[in-house]
Amino acid sequence: xxxxxxxxxxxxxxxxxxxxxxxxxxxxxxxxxxxxxxxxxxxxxxxxxxxxxxxxxxxxxxxxxxxxxxxxxxxxxxxxxxxxxxxxxxxxxxxxxxxxxxxxxxxxxxxxxxxxxxxxxxxxxxxxxxxxxxxxxxxxxxxxxxxxxxxxxxxxxxxxxxxxxxxxxxxxxxxxxxxxxxxxxxxxxxxxxxxxxxxxxxxxxxxxxxxxxxxxxxxxxxxxxxxxxxxxxxxxxxxxxxxxxxxxx
Length: 249
What we know:
Mean pLDDT: 92
Number of strands: 8
Number of helices: 6
CATH architecture: 3-Layer(aba) Sandwich
Order of helices and strands: HEEEHEHEHEEHEH
Structural class: alpha/beta
Low-confidence stretches: 1-21
Largest sheet: 8 strands, mixed
Number of domains: 1
Distance between the termini: 37 Å
CATH class: Alpha Beta
Strand order of the largest sheet: 1-2-4-3-5-6-7-8
CATH topology: Rossmann fold
């Protein structure tokens, strides 16, 4: 995926109007960024990574447990809103962000695929907000980045939804990092998902170093957030994730 200093990212969120940010700009509201808030009351802000990349981010909800949500490829945080609302309704705090080069986040000249740095900034934001427990939850590319790019980040658990490995141009795969993932881990996927093949997903899962780990594999080929928001098995998978979070919080 080509990334330049000025980028208009392709998005999967209907009604989203993604555009690169400019210095000194006030962050757009969630409604301005996505066209709809999906009834989520959220504060929008700029979030800076340690290599000074400016990310567009939101936070919503309250409580001592925070879920950091990561969107898929060629998308932005707008696609996480449906799931974010379900978490907030159950008492969780949510931090969501646009990856570098996507949505309204900055596209850096260097380290354009260093997605782990974006996660680190979001986790730091959650801690500043008083989070006692932090979970990373990502879909598709975001889920793969959680698997491949976050082994050095201290969190209380990870959930990858249809995320296995990062495709060329979407980030850096770090196979050696898999064994260093020790916090509880949950993978949610489907049997016939062409973008997250089951054999590949299970092969990566076996290499995850966590002792507390499990998979939830459903029939069909649903991919990403549809698995937990509006797909055939969304009620079951959402209930599973909420139980998993409750049991690990």
